[in-house]
Amino acid sequence: MEQLTQFAPFLLMFVVIYFFMIRPQQKRAKQEKEFESTLKVGDKIITKSGLHGKVAELSEGTVVIETMAGKLKMERSAISMEMSAALNKK
Fold this sequence. Notes:
- This protein is an alpha+beta fold.
- Helix content is 50%, strand content 24%.
- The protein has helices at 2-37, 81-89; strands at residues 44-46, 52-58, 62-67, 70-75.
- A hairpin with a 3-residue loop joins strand 2 (52-58) and strand 3 (62-67).
- The longest helix is centred in the first third of the chain and has 36 residues, at 2-37.
- The termini are far apart.
C-alpha cells in the first residue's frame, strides 16, 4: 500500500503529460495526414516555407505545384494545413 502511494505522483504526472502533450500531437498528425490525402488538382495551397501555388499534379508522396515562377515538385508533407485553410477561407 505504501509503495502505491509513493508511485501515485509519478503516475499522475504521466497521465497529465499524456493528455496535455502526447494526445493532442497525435490528433494533429492524424488531421495533417487526412488533409494531405484530400488534396486535389486545382487546390490553392501554401507550403510550410511560405510558397503560394496551385496543385498541378498529384502522385503517391509528392505534389507538383504551379507558382508564378513555374512548376515545383515537393513532398505532400511540405504543405501547411493551417495556412492553406486560411487562404481558402478568404
